[in-house]
Amino acid sequence: MSYLKSARALLALFGLVAAMAAAQAQTAAGKLPNVTILATGGTIAGSGATTTTTVGYTAATVGVDALIKAVPELQKVAHVSGEQVFQIASENMGNDNWLVLARRVNALLARPDVDGIVITHGTDTIEETAYFLNLVVKSRKPVVVVGAMRPSTAISADGPINLYNAVLTAGSQDAVGKGVLVVMNDQINAAREVTKTNTTTTDTFKSPELGMLGYIVDNKPHFYRASTRKHTVDTEFDVSKLDTLPQVDIAYAYANVGPAAVNALVAAGARGLVHAGVGDGSLPAKVRPALSSAREKGVVIVRASRVGQGIVARNGEANDDQLDFVVADTLNPQKARILLMLALTRTGSTKEIQRMFYTY
Ligand code: SIN
Prior knowledge:
This protein has about 350 residues and is of the alpha/beta class.
């Protein structure tokens, strides 16, 4: 009898231990963040003819489910779900895609059961999409844009580790309130400052001079700095009611350039023009009258620089006050275009638009 009693007690103890272990596992699982992966295409979803094909492959062929399945480690660090938003190479990313993507991101982040978002994207325009979202996402929750330089079929493809690091970052409390991030090559960069600096290498993404925000090491994002410009919940831009964005184009300066590009862009209906000037945004003598006459027609002109680093100084290489031009501050021309488009959804005042360029 007493033997039976102690056997039952032992069994009960085992049961209790097992239940505690199960409860513990459940709690641990319950603590995993919910991260939604929105897939848009790019090389991260690309495939090549052979394992050594790292150029001349086809971007945007692998679906989001396959991307997630290829990295089973994701399940250990987050509850991951995926949606295929687009399946395109990022040179074809357009304003309409951005509006769709931004609305989806905002809708998902408004839900209490979504802790962070990862967007898989081609690297060619990743910095533009990231900066657009940085200005229009209305949440402090992490949004991480990620790509890869090698297709999924290549030896040492960088997509899986980049995706894993992106999910880690999107699920991290440390990434809350940091604005939209680009995570690649074990590094975290801010959307405003990051740019592609090399056509093919895996360490292509840098924030020239201003520096990256941190690293991903040992399964954890480590932040060392933050971008000081306003973003996400602190901007005045609202895409929820926008069907289109105003047409804004870029005219590039070079030795011997004439006014043809500026005139053509204005004739094609540009409401804003970013001039990617030489040096400190200098205006070649043959282009200046075309820009000035565009301004007289109501086109907003932003003086940027093709150099890619440094401030374009107001009233430096041109008298912006007199010409009624705006300067891009440190934004490169492709990002200045995005801010100008969004600015034009709010105002036509160059004074106000200049304020925005010094704010975002
Ligand atoms: C693309 O931008 O879609 C192709 C190139 C890449 O993702 O690296």
